[in-house]
Write a structure and sequence with these properties.
The protein is an alpha+beta fold and about 270 residues long. The protein has eleven helices and twelve strands. It has a five-stranded antiparallel β-sheet. It has a four-stranded antiparallel β-sheet with strand order 9-10-11-12. The chain has a three-stranded parallel β-sheet with strand order 1-3-2, covered by helices on one side. The chain starts with a strand and ends with a helix.
Length: about 270
């Protein structure tokens, strides 16, 4: 299809109006524009969020609120989100991070979307605007089912983890600027050497980011030893739906998952 109009609304509500008519929402354009340029975009109108006031990043009262149009660079520059910087540096190049948005990262297909994996591990909530007003939805639900026709994600909320609880590891073909073979993000707390809480999200091993629920259950009440973490990684193989692509085969992704889950906790 040929793009016939590009709308630049100045509010989320105006963006919703265009979206309800079938226009495609565009943040930084790093995902949408390649489809437009190749003629694969199934829409004739685009809606740019660059002036919709959705690019704020703030941390107040222990909760981060990140606008859907905030760039990955802006997220990494916020002092209250410094724990995400190592993860963000593994995503694409600085030039792409200057354009790519948080909202776009939620909907890009795996093996991309590493920030979405991090936000899943943080148990984030999405703020969604639609023709009937605004609502909240768990990020896990949005990643699985998307949003209704005419709705758009306007922000994401999550509580930054307490010191020592955050883990992140990404296996790539190159050291930086490459899609994931396996991404692991986790909020895991311990007391007296034993795990008291664990939430683990995985990327690169299913069409969308997924929770490693089997690994989480196995870790509870146990120490983070090499043996226990390897056992948890093997358990996590039952939570994934790996795929073949140019970076790795489904077999390889499943085979190395236990290694990389362990490395997220014990480098």
């Amino acid at each position: 299809m040929v793009i016939q109009a590009v709308h630049v609304p100045e509010s989320a509500e105006a963006a919703v109006t265009y979206s309800a008519r079938g226009a495609w929402i565009m943040g930084g354009g790093t995902v949408v524009m390649p489809l437009v340029n190749s003629g694969a975009a199934p829409a004739t109108e685009l809606v740019s969020l660059c002036r919709a006031g959705l690019d704020g990043v703030e941390v107040r009262a222990g909760v981060a609120r990140i606008g859907a149009a905030a760039t990955l660079t802006a997220v990494g520059e916020h002092p209250g989100l410094a724990f995400l910087r190592p993860a963000l540096r593994t995503i694409a190049s600085p030039t792409i991070r200057n354009q790519a948005t948080v909202g776009g990262n939620l909907f890009v297909a795996q093996p991309y979307g590493d920030l979405a994996v991090c936000l899943l591990a943080l148990d984030a909530t999405c703020e969604i605007a639609g023709p009937d007003g605004r609502r909240d939805a768990p990020l896990a639900e949005v990643l699985t089912s998307g949003v209704a026709s005419g709705e758009i994600v306007v922000a994401v909320r999550a509580a930054p983890p307490e010191p020592g609880a955050w883990r992140y590891h990404k296996a790539m073909r190159r050291r930086l600027n490459s899609a994931a073979i396996v991404t692991v993000a986790s909020v895991t707390r311990t007391a007296d050497g034993l795990v008291t809480f664990s939430r683990i999200a995985l990327g690169g091993v299913a069409p969308r980011p997924v929770r490693a629920l089997s690994a989480e259950r196995l870790l509870l009440g146990r120490p983070l030893t090499h043996e226990v973490l390897t056992e948890a990684g093997v358990a996590a193989q039952s939570d994934i739906d790996p795929f073949d692509d140019a970076y790795a085969s489904a077999w390889y992704r499943a085979r190395v998952l236990p290694v990389h889950l362990r490395r997220a906790f014990v480098p």
